[in-house]
Design brief:
By secondary structure, the chain is α/β, with parallel strands linked by helices. 28% of the residues lie in helices and 18% in strands. The longest helix is centred in the N-terminal third of the chain and has 14 residues. It binds manganese (II) ion (MN). Manganese (II) ion binds next to loops.
């Protein structure tokens, strides 16, 4: 059975996605791809995101989409804009997304893509058992009992621990994005097997676009071409002292590949 690569939050970084797809042709030639959500908003080239996905699929790559918290927003903006790309009264970043897509004559394609993504909250597989979700789960409820809205949007408040520190591992390996981190975070069991891979590395904030290959447990990172934002520099996940995961079980990212 072929392996799967999960790609973190793209957020309109179409240039970086095109570079990543190109590298995946050598790094993971026959793998299926899962894109973890937040595809089009915020970044400068949502048009290239759509074109890159179309081109990769046309070349025979299987690409599946998971819904992020930005997909419904993007779809609402695209629908409101209508066929003529009207963006009055829209928040500036959504208006910029619509303008870019209208200019490239990709409004209808964007609507189709958002609708496709919104049909799927999680995608999973076996050996090792894994699930890709945009944001995560409620560790108290587990994967099966976490509401879709929470899976798309769970995020710790300023004084709260990230959910993954309280996850007990019973639902297998969970691969998530949503919270931008300055490095990818892979939590491991004491025997080294990964249990959480958090791979939103803030491409749109000047970080990296990160892909995680499940079967080989490897990361591939493409450096962002966006301006590095000051607030992003030290985005980490603080490990609470009472977490079941030891610091030794948290692997550093492997050397970025450029
Ligand atoms: Mn998100």
């Amino acid at each position: 059975m072929s392996d799967t690569v999960v790609i973190g939050d793209v957020h309109g970084c179409g240039e970086e996605l095109s570079i990543l797809f190109k590298r995946l042709r050598r790094w993971a030639p026959r793998c299926g791809i899962v894109m973890i959500g937040d595809l089009l908003t915020k970044g400068p080239r949502p048009d290239l995101v759509i074109e890159a996905i179309h081109a990769e699929r046309a070349a025979g790559r299987r690409i599946r989409l998971v819904c992020g918290n930005h997909e419904p927003r993007a779809l609402a903006a695209l629908r409101r804009a209508g066929g003529d790309g009207q963006t009055a009264h829209m928040p500036p970043r959504l208006a910029a997304m619509v303008d870019c897509l209208a200019e490239a004559d990709l409004i209808d394609d964007a609507i189709t893509l958002m609708r496709e993504a919104m049909r799927t909250i999680r995608i999973g597989g076996a050996r090792p058992r894994w699930h890709a979700i945009h944001a995560g789960i409620d560790p108290e409820r587990g994967l099966a009992r976490t509401r879709a809205r929470v899976m798309m949007a769970i995020k710790a408040g300023p004084d709260e621990d990230d959910w993954w520190w309280n996850y007990d591992g019973t639902d297998g390996l969970l691969i998530v994005g949503h919270k931008p981190l300055s490095r990818p975070l892979v939590l491991r069991r004491p025997d080294g097997r990964p249990v959480v891979a958090a791979i939103d590395t803030g491409c749109v904030y000047g970080g990296f676009l990160t892909a995680y290959r499940i079967g080989t447990d490897r990361l591939l990172m493409v450096r962002s071409r966006q301006r590095r934002q000051f607030s992003f520099r030290r985005r980490t996940s603080r490990r609470p002292t009472d977490s079941a995961w030891r610091v030794a079980a948290v692997a550093q990212a492997r050397t970025p590949v450029h």
